[in-house]
Specification:
The protein is an all-alpha fold. The protein contains 15 helices and 4 strands. It has a two-stranded antiparallel sheet. A two-stranded antiparallel sheet has the order 3-4. A hairpin with a 2-residue loop joins strand 3 and strand 4 (110-111). The longest helix has 28 residues, at 192-219.
């Protein structure tokens, strides 16, 4: 079991990330030993470990630990680090499944898990279906392990019930958000409120609010602290996803993240697309309707879509929405009276969540 003691006057986010990764490595090493002892396929654990090792911002894990500090906790971080690590396993599950549903080519610079599974099956005509099924099951294991790790956290009964309730609510929200995303693809693409609802359920609360509140629950936070996290969690979570939508279509100005095709090929109900359709003239709207959602969309057609989204002001308006939400978060923090170390860490994480990074 990995544990640590952190000075209450400083939150070293890089050290926290290392400690979370150590918890994950210890937990998955134990899973690998169990698989070996029982004759389970060893590649299942290895696939989850490789997925986690490929990178990611660890935003949720870091926010969980910061939420614990914001509630006034200090000293032994064993419990909160395990909750934070559980969140990263949950994220692995969600992203693996999301990539299956979107048939994404890659994730974090590596082939998506279902693509890896498909390649293992070689020329078998069933490779596509079976590869997706294998990845689905690996994702299910990640979710099971996330909950198993969560249940190793030892808290007094009241805090434990509160923690479980928050975690269960997060799972339910993400499932409903993913359902809306899948079943609404290609429908009412100009409905910005529908696009925002998907963001709120699928991403916003699970990325920011729930991790903060989970960390605070471990610390036994009062309602005032929990309320702060609700007030800043939704706008920051929305800004996080709006930035991700921009990255997927346009990439980052520094070239670290290249423009993608997945959202455009899927016809995802994003705020960016809704704004483009709302602001487009008849000819532009027809071209967007013709191009977006085509599975075979190529770079030339994608460049035309990007040009329309730029010309209509959809990209600029999305940037303004991100900025306004970020400013709202700062105003909430200005009046929150959180411990200085937690306040400083939250301001830094707000920047990390909303700037152009892959």
């Amino acid at each position: 079991m990995t544990s640590g003691v952190v000075d209450a006057q400083m939150i070293d986010l890089r050290a926290v990330q290392g400690q979370v990764d150590a918890v994950l490595e210890d937990f998955l090493a134990d899973k690998a030993r169990t698989a070996s002892d029982r004759g389970y396929p060893p590649e299942a654990v290895r696939t989850v470990r490789d997925f986690l090792a490929a990178g990611g911002k660890r935003i949720r894990a870091l926010l969980c630990v910061v939420g614990w500090h914001a509630a006034g906790a200090h000293g032994d971080t064993t419990a909160v680090l395990r909750v934070a690590a559980s969140l990263e396993l949950f994220v692995a599950f969600a992203l693996i499944h999301d990539d299956i549903m979107d048939d994404s080519v890659s994730r974090r610079g590596r082939p998506a898990v279902h693509r890896v599974m498909r390649a293992r099956l070689g020329q078998d005509e069933r490779a596509e279906r079976l590869g997706a099924g294998g990845a689905l099951l690996v994702g299910n294991l990640a979710l099971m392990w996330a909950q198993e790790l969560l249940h190793t956290v030892q808290l007094e009964p009241g805090r434990q019930r509160r923690m479980y309730g928050l975690y269960d609510a997060m799972l339910e929200e993400v499932m409903y958000g993913q359902y809306l995303d899948v079943m609404g693809t290609g429908l009412d693409a100009d409905d910005m409120e529908a696009a925002l609802q998907i963001i709120r359920f699928k991403t916003a609360t699970a990325t920011i609010e729930r991790p903060l509140r989970l960390g605070a629950a471990v610390a036994g936070a009062g309602e005032a602290t929990m309320g702060v996290f609700t007030r800043l969690g939704l706008p920051l979570g929305e800004a996080f996803q709006l930035r991700d939508d921009l990255l997927d279509v346009f990439g980052s100005p520094d070239g670290a993240c290249g423009p993608g095709l997945s959202d455009l090929r899927e016809g995802k109900r994003t705020v960016l697309l809704a704004l483009g359709l709302q602001r487009a003239d008849q000819a532009q709207r027809e071209r967007l309707g013709h191009l977006v959602g085509r599975a075979g969309l190529g770079e030339r057609e994608a460049a035309e879509v990007r040009s329309i989204l730029q010309a209509t002001g959809a990209r600029e308006q999305t940037e303004r929405m991100i900025a306004s939400r970020y400013e709202h978060v700062l105003r909430v923090l200005d009046g929150a009276g959180l411990p200085s170390a937690a306040d400083s860490a939250l301001r830094g994480l707000a920047v990390r969540a909303t700037r152009y990074t892959s």
